[in-house]
Amino acid sequence: MMNWDQLLSTIRFGQEHLTGLRPHARTEFQRDYDRLIFSSAFRRMQSKTQVFPLPGIVFVHNRLTHSLEVSCVGRSLANNAAAAFLEKYKGEEWTWKLNSIDDIVATACLAHDMGNPPFGHSGERAISSYFAEGNGKSLRSELDEQEWRDLVCFEGNANAFRLLSHQFNGRRPGGFALTYSSLASVIKYPYPSTAAGKKGKFGYFKSESDGFHRVMDELGIEPVDEERMCFSRHPLVFLVEAADDICYQIMDIEDAHHLKILSTEETKELLLGFLEGERRLQVEERLQLFVSDINEQIAYLRSCAIGTLVHECSEAFISHEEDILHGHFMTPLMNLISETPKRAYQRCSEVARSKIYNTSDVVDIEIAGHRIFSVLLDRYLEAVLWPDHTASRLLLSRVPGQYEMRSPVLYCRLLAVLDYISGMTDEYALDLYRKINGISLPTL
Asked: Which of 418, 424, 390, 388 is nearest to 404 (CA)?
């Protein structure tokens, strides 16, 4: 059984020998949060698609604004949990550690999408299909089973753990050198690609296997299936997952209203669906305060819906704490909320699938993403396979030195290509695609 004392660790990945040697006014977990906020990898998410195309005359969410909002919701969820656990474990020597749950969850929420490639989730699918169905198939015989599965199931979650923990060329050991607890709270799928199943979800690449197991061992997180190397989740992952579920579903509805995909009345009804009884009547009455501003009405209803889900998911986490600590609990908190908000959430999901994710703009982004990734992967894989060719030297000359494009190990070279491409913004990937195809040239 896991325990909070061990789960809340300030040991830093790659800097284990420095633990406790550098007193600081901020806690170690606050430093994790600040370290991500000020990183270039985090800033680049402002130019990565969430759902709708960027840029546009109507503001919609990008990866960065989504992650900031998830972080705020995650902090609220964690504060609710911490208040309950501080009372429950009052008098224990380690109870003070619970005061940092909010910072750990907020940090993990910031990081949860940092490994996602350009063009939203279509970027993940484009990379996977390139190796499963495209020209990348030719490399199958040169890789072992896990290496191949890492590519054909390319996963933003696993890539986030790599981005945060890998020592790129010229960088310090441990990547971002986050605390073990913050790193573990990012790992939504604590198992390798060989255990990914039909959904293709997994938590770490083969290259980060040793680091993953080091984190699990230090925090006392044990495998639930030793043969397939599937581990329990760090308990705080459930709060990170819930914060993401809350934000992407509710904010997609609001964005769709801004873009006039959903009517005002339909949007209001979807968001009011999370409320019932006296609370719903109270909110409907307060809407009259914003009668002249439709967007403010929608924003108010959105906040009410999120507030309801935060309360519900917090209660679910608190009531299932012991099951979660035993390690066999895997149910998303969103599945445990009460009937009224659950029906409303399911209704929002149905509307999103039928009216939002299938709009022409969203589909066009996926089509373009597949084409752009196909060309970039073709060119850069050719470059790392035959680096002495003239065209290869030109392409590799513009790749930052942190990427291991000339590694003697093929698998490492392939991951280096994916590191480079997945770290691009939408605009940078499109610009590079145009230049490679001779469509865009520098101005003389």
From this structure: 418
Cβ atoms within 10 Å of 124's Cβ, excluding its own: 23
Distance CA 436, CA 101 (A): 47
Q: How confident is the model at residue 324 (pLDDT cuts 50, 70, 90)?
A: very high
Inform me whether the pLDDT recorded for 20 exceeds 80. Answer: no
Angle at 171 between CA 190 and CA 187, to 5 degrees: 10
Closest CA to 362 of 207, 255, 224, 247: 255
Query: What's the CA gap between 101 and 78, in Å, rounded?
Result: 6
How far, in Å, CA of 300 to CA of 227, rounded? 49
pLDDT of residue 364: 77
Residue type, 354: S
User: How many other CB atoms sit within 10 Å of the CB of residue 438?
Assistant: 7
Cβ contact 362:272 at 8 Å? no
Given a cut of 70, whether residue 41 has pLDDT beyond it is: yes
pLDDT reported for residue 377: 95
Bond into 223 cis (ω within 30): no
Quick count: other Cβ atoms within 10 Å of Cβ 400? 12
Q: Is the pLDDT of residue 53 over 80?
A: no
Cα 424 to Cα 128: distance, rounded to the nearest angstrom: 17
Nearest CA to 252 out of 239, 269, 270 is that of 270
What is the per-residue DSSP string for 246-301? Answer: HHHHHHHHHHHHHTTSS-HHHHHHHHHTT--HHHHHHHHHHGGGGTT-HHHHHHHH
What tokens were used for 425?
A: 């913004």
Rounded distance, CA 22 to CA 28, Å?
A: 10
Least confident of 45-49, 182-186, 216-220, 302-306: 45-49
Query: Token match 């309360």: residue?
Result: 311
Q: For residues 23 and 246, what is the distance between their CA atoms, to the nearest angstrom?
A: 36
pLDDT of residue 54: 46
Averaged confidence pLDDT in the chain: 91
| pTM as predicted | 0.94
CA distance 166 to 211: 9
Residues pairing with 204 in the sheet? 192
H helices present in 62-177, as ranges: 63-88, 101-111, 121-132, 145-152, 156-165
Q: What's the Rg (C-alpha) of the chain?
A: 23
The Cα–Cα gap between 104 and 7 comes to 11
Q: In 10 A of CB 325, how many CB atoms?
A: 15
